[in-house]
Amino acid sequence: MKKLFSLVLVFILLITSSFPVTATTIPSAKEEVVYGILGQDGSVRNLYVVNIFPGSKIIDYGNYSEIRNMTSSEEIKQSQDKITIDTIATPFYYQGNLISKELPWNILVKYYINDKEVSGLDLAGQSGQLKINISVSQNPNIDPIFYENYALQIALTLDNKLCSNIKTDQATIAEAGGKKQVNFTLLPGNPFEASVTADVKNFEMDSITFNAIRLNLKMDIDSDEFSSQISQLITAVEELDSGAGQLLDGLKQLSDGMDEYVNGMKAYHDGMGQLSTGVKDLSKGASSLEEGLSQLTKENNTLVYGALALQEAAFDAINMQLSGFGLNLPQITPDNYSSILSNVPQLEELKLQLDGIIQFTQGLKEYTQGVAELGKGAASLADGTEKLHDSILEIASSSKDLYDAAVNLNNAIKNIEDGLASYKDGTEKFKNESSHMDEEIEKQIQQLLAEIYDSDFQAKSFVSDKNKQVDSVQFVLKTEAIQIPDTPSVIVQEPVKLNFWQKLLKLFGLYDG
């Protein structure tokens, strides 16, 4: 029995291995173009997909509310999410209307006229200052492969007859047959917001289009040259740090010098204060001296007159004595006494006494003259010391201003020194952190290039995860146009001309033509 069971099992395996595995459930290779009709505000109204196949026996998957053969008359069979068709057409197209109304991007369009938000319907025919705001963000409910890998091109077309002074950032504006084409390009994985402004009259606008494709840039980038420039930048940063260090050292020397200068200015200011006090005392002393000499000068004449009176009395007394001696000498005076008495040896003592009197009188005159001159000098000295004192006060005040300015300048230099020290710390940190920046940037460039030129990227079906052989997926979306509603034409009927008999019958209500 065991041998028989083994033979049967081998026979079954041989039979089953002789039949090929059926491929009727394997989805066919295809391309997808997703078309979307959006409301004027960017909301999704309808989504349908045009599926493109090379032909033959086709198996596809998708949750469609309706399907339509766009190529031939063959019947397309739909069983839940499985679609099959046998066709000889090549290529073969069929359209499927998606049940889901969600895109990889949340699109929002807002309209403003004269800074007041209005709907697209109410905007038609309006005049004034227009602003259109467009924002795009990721829809977390959809596979992020599309948001992260597909670039989005947004295009607005504005009629030159209806719009003027068109302005926008982040966009290119081109002339196209009497219209302005405003194009925005949104790179993969980035949110977006931009505005377009214009002056409009009787406004209308074609649909805003949103086209999304897999970004595949073909460009030559010399990363070695870029890395070389980064290396030059690193060298420049090192030199900047070195220069900042030298500048900081120089500023420290300047700061030290300013400290000495401020100390010197303080000593100068203090000295000027002491000098001012000394000059003030000197001025007071000079004034007192002037006053004393002035008083003494007033007594000069009295002293001189007294001395002359004494001299005259002395000569009168001597002349009286000499006349009593019977010497027959002439009258002696201060002018002739010396010559007269010199010839009489017995009168030598008298001559000496008169010499003393004359010398005293003459000395007193010279003394009074000296006092007068000294008084004048004291007056000049008092005036000069007073002016010197005033000047010293101004100099002392100026020295205070100089000292205060030096203190402020020194404080400013200290602040600059502190700031430069922080700057030096920053340049040193920048130097340390950028020392290997060329290697890191080279790594980032290679990573970025790998993402852009990702040859291993595998397109994924937007319709169903069961479709495994998708060559490409493209999105073509557009909003409803903003148009002024057509005014229904009014048919004006010309009055019917009646003849005489018709008019007569109508008068009596017998004619209703």
Radius of gyration: 61 Å
State the oligomer.
single chain
Low-confidence stretches: 8-23
- Order of strands side by side in the largest beta sheet? 4-7-2-1-17-16-11-14-13
The overall number of domains is 2
Number of helices in the DSSP assignment: 9
Secondary-structure class: alpha+beta
Following the backbone from N to C, one meets helices and strands in this order, namely: HEEEEEEEEEHEHEEEEEEHHHHHEH
Total DSSP E strands: 17
Note the main sheet. Answer: 9 strands, mixed
Give the termini distance in whole angstroms. Answer: 109 Å
Helix content: 40-55%
On the 0 to 100 scale, the average pLDDT is 82
Can you tell me about this structure?
This protein is of the alpha+beta class and 513 residues long. It has 2 domains: 27-216 and 456-513, no CATH class; 240-433, Helix Hairpins, CATH 1.10.287. The protein has helices spanning 2-17, 120-123, 145-149, 223-298, 300-325, 337-341, 348-434, 437-452, 500-507; strands at residues 30-38, 44-53, 56-61, 64-69, 77-79, 82-87, 92-98, 105-113, 116-118, 128-138, 150-159, 163-168, 172-175, 179-186, 192-200, 209-214, 470-479. The strands form 3 sheets. The protein has a 9-stranded mixed beta sheet. A hairpin with a 5-residue loop joins strand 1 (30-38) and strand 2. Helix 4 (223-298) packs antiparallel against helix 7 (348-434). The radius of gyration is 61 Å and the shape is elongated.
